[in-house]
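Final report, section 2: Outcomes. Of the targets proposed, RNA polymerase II-associated protein 3 is the one most frequently requested by collaborating groups, and we therefore present its record in full.
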Amino acid sequence: MVLIEDVDEEEEREALKAAAKAASQQWRRIQVVQEDSDDDAPVAPAASEQSVQHSGVSDPCPDLSILCSRAGAEEAKRHGNRLFGEGKVAECERWFSKALWLYESGRVRDFPGDLRCALHSNRALARLKLQRFRDAEEDCSAALEDNPQNAKARYRRAMARLELGKLVPGLEDVERALKELPEDSRQEAQDLKVRIQEQLATPEGPAGTAKQPTPKGREKKEPTKAEDSGYKRIHVKEVDEDKKEASKPETTAEKTHVNGHAQQEPYPDIQLEPTMQGAEKAKQRANELFQKGSLEESARWFSKAIWLLESGKVPGATASLRSVLHSNRAFARSKLQQWTGVEEDCTEALALNESNAKALYRRSQARLELNKLDAALEDVQQLLPLLAAPADQEAQDLKKRILEQQAKAKKTLEKAKEASVKAEQRDDAKAPPPAGFKRMEIVEASDSEEEETKAAAKVEAPKAVLTSSQDQKDKEMFPELKFEFSRKGVEAAKNTGGQLFSKQDLQGASRHFSKALWMLQSGKVADAQSDVSWCNSTRLALHSNRAFSELRQENWQAAEDDCAEALKIEPQAVKALYRRAMAREKMGRAAEALKDVEEALKLQPGAEELVALQKRLKPAPKAETGFKRMEIVEASDDDEEAGPPADSEPCEPWDELEPTLAGVEKGKEMGNRLFSEGKIEECERWFSKAIWLAEESGKVNVPSDLRGILHSNRAFARLRLQQWLLAEEDCTQALVLNASNSKALYRRAQARLELGKRSMALEDVDKLLPMLAPPSDRDAQELRERILALPESPAKKAEMFPDLHFEFSRKGVEAAKDAGSQLFSKQDLQGASRHFSKALWMLESGKVADAESDASWCNSTRLALHSNRAFSELRQGNWQAAEEDCTEALKINPQAVKALYRRAIAREELGRKEEALKDAEAALALQPGEELVALQKRLKAATETPGVEAVKRTETEAKAPSASPTPKEAPEPEPFDDIKLEPTLAGVEKGKEMGNKLFSAGKFEECERCFSKALWLAQESGKVKAPNDIRGILHSNRAFARLRLQRWSDAEKDCDEALRLNERNAKALYRRAMARQQLEKPKAALADLEQLLPMLDGNSNKDALALKEELLAQLRPSSPKALQKEAAKPAEAQRPASAPVRTVSAAPSMPSTSPKSGMELLRQFKSLKKHPEVLTKYVTEKVPPSLLQSLFSRSPIEADDLALVLQTLRTAASAAEPLPGPRVGEYLQQLLRTHGAGTQFSMLSSSEKQLVRELVAMVPGSSGDDLKQSFTKVL
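The predicted structure is given below as tokens.
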């Protein structure tokens, strides 16, 4: 049996050849079925496992081609063996990984356990020699799962554990290996046992304790008896790698390192006494932290306890305690979704205690997540006999999930095989065999090195593409680059690489990034070993940066490899996905590239560069009219990312232009050529690059006429792409640079015609025609005729709402918009719609001169106006008008969440529920929130119910259960399913009582929900026939709650219904009068009071009389001041007839929980803005600054909502107990970090921008200065 193999020493190789040749004349001791390897492959460490973890089917080495079968895996193993014999260990490791991937991806089902065992054991040796001890330990553990009697795997795991400082489990492994190995093969294992025992026996204290080095001569001694018998011996290099280390005494610190790899104490901040009590204390503390939800801290304490017991410092550590610690840490890691770590811990726990049921269950869970379905099923099947019902329910559920996943994987595999067979049949006659694959001759494995070498020579090695990162770790990379071996040194190398990149020294940048990576992987950066988080984030940034540099140098394979490494660290790194997609595109692997870009788009929807790349890789429908160009905001893995920031330069490497005037000209020429070839998207990208270089980079001074041509040309491309708004913006910019640019005028007229801006398009053509002479004016004349042929909308023939007077300027448009918002907040919905319409008409009239040059401002303002008017129309029940406004808003920005949400509501009311559901789901993908989830749930229930679309339910039909259409319409889904009421009259009464109690407690929102639930049960569910008087009381009570919430229109509707059910309901009359007063309907309110007063006696009519006096004062034409005063009068002046004290606008209670979505946050701000004390308390207690950023991290906070947040901050800062200035600064800082913050802040009106400046002025010290500088750029 081969214990371990090494073909690095030439002398030993020759000796082994001679010994093996002599031995082969007599007999062969054992056939060598596992040839072992000896080099590193940092290009894809544990590639198969990592790829399974993240994607389940991702090929770790797509450049290596093997048959997708058991025979293919065997062939890959044999080829790995030959590469090992040739000393190409990095390539050998990749072939073993490729073979294992066939099993782990589920592509080969009949994968025997002995083959898996051999592959893991072989790869473990390669990784041992590469000093990848952790990976080697994992491979050995996997091999031992398949075959617990595999002595080689146990010996190798002992070696790895020695290097990792796990002395106690290492000693256990080597002692068991000694029992299983033949007597003549035990020498290395015996030596290893001695080394471990020496380290265990070494005292911690004196620094002068010396360790005896292993004599160098031992490595070159003559073959032993075992070697003569056909065994190949290897001598593991010990700590004394050089003479210095061999000759000088070791200090305690030195003894904690082996071969340059740290065995030092982890987490030095956690201090434990080296006793069993210390380990128990750590376990107890870890459990407490787990209960509190501090999962990462809990895992650290478990790790410290495990290290203490396995370091050899604590005598008598029991296997059961160590098993529990590993199992507990696995549980913490499962909550953190660190599935590979969970699997490792559970495997270790089971090695210590094979009946640990929790470890079996958790490992099965982890393997399911890692897509190791067969292994997961084995675990759960082994677990079930250990459990008795009903304790086995979770395990049964887990088994069911695994079997379902296997069935899905089988179907997917069958489809893939069918597609593959069809493709092979199509291409078999004309296509050569796949690159890098040959049917290989099966050669009997021999103990003879000479025979094996000859056999390997018969077969040509398939090619494997390797990157520069495969340099062995024991050889310093770029020794001419000198940096200190510390965190500071690694950062210095990284920063130098970033600076070289910005200077376009790409090779120098790559060298420095590689140096920094080598330093981290060498194990010599001592102060980094205890901070895994810093190591991972730094490695992520370095791989991502080097990938960017390699892309620029067109080293596509190297770039892909770096991105793959980055994604192993952080699978959701958008930049790495994007860059790998570009590299794969260049290598002709479009399908894989498309997968990457689609995954990136899930993480960052709508990013322009990603969308463009997706369209290039997969032909897509033409862009929707009016699609707004969106800024790509990448989830940065490093604040000091190489090269210019992502928000200033498009990060595509495909259009390299030198930062000179000649470079700009080249970009223009490339764009023109691509346009003539019909490659419009590519053309647009080149013009964009040239414009960036000319205008935004600050590197080149470009004449205005050339910049104008670039904008005009890009506009032409965008017209072809039907990007009308972007084309209009480009033409406007071109005309700012050169007012006589006739092409820009013509193209802007075309864009405006498509956007429905008829008068503005006509104005452009009329300006253009005098510049042209016949016959060159023919196209312009035809365009003019087309514009005139279109009917002019009534809104543009005459001024809309001439009674509303506003200045024709940006300031005037903003004033009309603000007036509409104020009227909306007072529930004057018709007035709000009129003002929004007036502002839109002003914009589209072409008379707002100072807005023409700023297309961005025009578009953002139109977006807000259409969205706001849609909201107003929804409140008025004008569903069609609301839908049209939302559609206009979505033409400007297809990702406007509010517009999607409001259009979904309108379409639901119009009976088009399937379309509504699509809108709701699109909005949810952009910004999850309770309102959207509720709407989606309601729409799904409606679309899944037969007959719902046949007859639209009206309010009257909902109230008359007996009049059901045919086919019978299903009832609406039950609202507020968290409020449980039995479907009886008693249940309705209970809902009423609950609402009354909540009202008394000041919880008006909860109260309103209870009344709504009771009303649904009494009227809409069809389950309860409630008397009219109860329904009337419920409507009246809900109206009272809605008055408190300042929902005047809803309160009025409730009172209408209460009075329909009982026309003498005095409370409903009084409350409707109050609502109508707030809605500025004084005459209607007065009519209610005239009807009410005869019902009341002298003791209960005081409030009604007082309200009547207020209304009469409003109606007196001689007192406009009184009218204004009363209109602004707070609602505290109102109370119901039955109430002894006026309490309608008493301060509402503060919400008890933090908002769970952006929409909820904005709703609470709006409802509390008239109660500054409550609002301030809510902000300080329930809305920490960091929450703002997290709620708006994936979709932007729209400009009008941003203004509301700013006004809320000002209110809180001006309250009786004001928000402190430094705290205001924290909120502003987080707002700057929200998605698309720069764009949204720039869209604020001048008065809102002034508000920002006032808030910044409240922030003291340097923080205020920094904020002032940041906002100066933004505003």
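Residues 393-427 form the longest helix (35 residues).
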